[in-house]
Design brief:
single chain; alpha+beta; 3 strands; about 20% helix
Length: about 50
């Protein structure tokens, strides 16, 4: 988990572990980088408002 905390190349993490974390929605892959997701990623139901 520490390796993924600030993003890590997916080749630096054991493939089986990375697959398991990804299946459980605990890791997000962006290109070659895998990121640990401490919280579930949610989107606003509507556009953010600027004041």
């Amino acid at each position: 988990m520490r390796a993924l905390e600030f993003g890590a190349d997916h080749t630096e993490v054991d493939a089986a572990v990375l697959a398991e974390f990804t299946e459980e929605l605990l890791v997000l892959r962006v290109g070659d980088v895998a990121w640990w997701l401490p919280y579930r990623v949610n989107r606003w139901l509507q556009e953010a408002m600027a004041i």
